[in-house]
Structure formats: structure tokens, C-alpha cells
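User: Okay, second chain of the day. Same drill as before: sequence in, C-alpha cells out.
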Amino acid sequence: MRQISLNNRFFFGFGIAIVLTALGYVAPTIIWLSAISFFCLGLLLLVDLLFLFLVVKPVKYAKHYQEKLSLGDPNPIRITLTNVSNVTIWITLNEGFPIDMQARNIHYNVSLTSFESIEINYEYTPKKRGVYEFTDSYLFTKSIFGLVARRTIIPHKSPIHVYPSILQMKRFEQMLFQQNKLQSGIRRIRKIGMSREFEQIRNYVPGDEIKSINWKATSRKNELMVNQYQEEKSQSVYCVIDKGRIMQMESKELSMLDYAINSTLVLSNICLHKSDKIGLFTFSDKLGTTLQASNKRIQLKKILDQLYTQKTTFQDSNFELLQQHISDKVRTRSLLLLFTNFENPFTLQRSLPYLLQIKKRNLLVVVLFKNEELEQFASLKPDNQRNFYQGIIASKMIIEKEKMAKQLNAMGIQTILTKPEELSTAVINKYLSLKAKGLL
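Assistant: Same drill. C-alpha cells below.
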């Protein structure tokens, strides 16, 4: 009985039979229509039940997806339905998703001829990292007359693991190393190595340093020629991720921490391809993950496993503790990309002395996020008093964020101020720019 599901057609037919019965009390001459309607409804219901449970065999269901889903990216999921009966059937599939991810069920209506298989493809975008399970899927096999359906519950016991965006990492790798930079937003940057290891003599391009001109080659060729040196390798790069409460702020259902984690994974892969060493620090009110810089290929897996478990806290971040930790662990001059966010000048002033201490021995880049909600408020038409004041306050806060970025730049601290969804592109461009200028 639990497998039987009554369809709308049954209730519609049952309602007609009840109306005919009620009319029979008013006009006794048509009472026979009531009996016939109930008899026909019962007969059709019996035929449907016999068809579903004696003729039709349960449909085979198979779900295929990657073992590790990528956070914030559309992940392809494929479902295969196979009709093992020798009759045509009609199916309604209700897909279930992890409850914690708050995704609505997806419904599909398909028809299958005898022994036919069909594939259903859709994309699912998880918004949280961690281990989850798909909820049960419900398969409704409809009958000939459509009065009832046979309900089959398909449990999903295999857990799904949502990792930082592996798809984004591979996409940026292809963009960078397959000469698609202009389409992707990654700028073309001439790699002018600053080491003493000579690579080649080439034609002068506007922007080249005057001191790199080879005057002997210039006199022979009668045109400006410059020396190009190999790009330095095995330089240390650290991603420092703030896990304080300020990183809980969300944009398009992803937190600032998630954006920082995805960009860290992308940058780590690029650095390893460039033969640089990559490491990881996380912190909030206390220290978190510490992973020393290395250029071994297994380093990417270590970083991925560490990023997978990171969560924000409800406390303010302790930059003094971070500065002491970096002084102890980072012995050579390194590039430090600090993913954090200062929403007002007061939080910046508290942290600024420690940032300046970090900057003395390292090349520090502070990554700040633009608040897109504030930009929306600032762009509202001041058609009423509320919108007018909201726009003024939002504009003031946007200007303050830009002033903070300029203040950091004036003190010798590199900054990136970008929208969260453009973070990976901005971070890669900054890394390539610093490396091309030989500032590491």
C-alpha cells in the first residue's frame, strides 16, 4: 500500500462520481449514473493496479557524479533510467539534494518504450564545503489510465564531498597555459627575469628597462635589442587566510572565506606550475593551519585537504599573533597574500602596525573585497528620502574602502581591491605582475 500513489485524475473522477450521486437525490431518474460512475472508476483503478504490479517491472535507476564536487561551480550529474518491461511506461522523477544546501527538488517527466534507456543530465551548484548526502529520490511510474502511480523510493547512502573549486583551478590553468589570457581577463605580462642567468637577445619592446639594452647587438642589427634573463624559480609564496567573523559576509551565497579558499587553490596550482614554492597559513583569534612552502606536486593535495575543513569563527582576528607566527615560520623573503577584509578605518588602524612589521621582511599583498550590496545601494535612484540617505551612506563606505587601499599602498603594502567573483583573476594577475617585475 505504501507504493501506491493516487494521481489527480483519480480525485477528479471521484469528484465527478460524488457530484452525480448528489444530483441523484434531486433527480432520482439519474441515480443510475452514480452507480455506473463508481463502477467504472473502480474497474479502471483495478486495471491500473494490475498493470503496475503485474505487468510493469521496477525501473532501473543509476546516478553518476564526480567523487569530489566543486564549491560554487556547476557540477554535472547524470541519471540513467532503464525500462526493463516490454510495455511503454510514463515516469515522474523527483530528485533530492542535501538538506543543508537548501536546494529545491528537481522534477522530470519522461516516457520509456519497452527496454529503452534514457539519460537525464543537469548541473548542481553546492554552496557549502563538507560531507553531505543526497536525500532520497522518488520515482513515480504511471499507469495506463493515469489514476494511480507506483512509488519507488531510491535511497542514497553514499556521501558526497564538496571541496574547494577544483573546476575553477583547472579552468584557470588552461586559460593561463593555453594562451587564452585575453579572453579570461588574465593580462599578458612579459616575463622579464631579473636573475643573472641569460636566456636570449630579443627586440626592444616599449616598457623594457633601459639598462637591459644590449648596445653591441643594437649596433649590429641597427635596431634596439635587449637582454632577457630567465625568470627566477623556487621562490616562496604563502597564502594567509583570515577566518575571523568579517569573512562570514556573503556574496551570491558564498562567504568571503569560500572565495579566498577557491582563489588560494587556483593560485597554488599556478605557482607549482611556475616551479615556485607555495605554503598556507590560516588564523582568526588563534592560529590555524600551518603548511610550510614547498614545490612538490603532493603539496597541492595537502593544500586541498587543509582548505576543505576551514571554517569561520565569531571572534575578531588577532593580527599580532599572526605577525609573531610569520616571523617564526618564514625565514626567507616571501610573497604573502593576506586574504582579509577591513570594513572601516578603525579595524585597519588596529592591524596596521603588525602588517608593517610583516612587510619589513616580506612582500605583503593585502586582498580586500568590494561590498556589492553597498554598490547597489549607492546606485539607487534617490526617488525617496530613504533611498537618498542609503545612497549617501553607501557611497561614503565605498570611498572609505578605497581610501584604506590607497593608504596601504602609500605605506608600501601592495593591495588588491576586487569583487569576490573576480578574485581569482585579480590574484593571478598580481602574482604574475610581481614575478615579472622581479620584486620577490
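The first strand starts at residue 4 and ends at 6.

User: Thanks, on to the next one.
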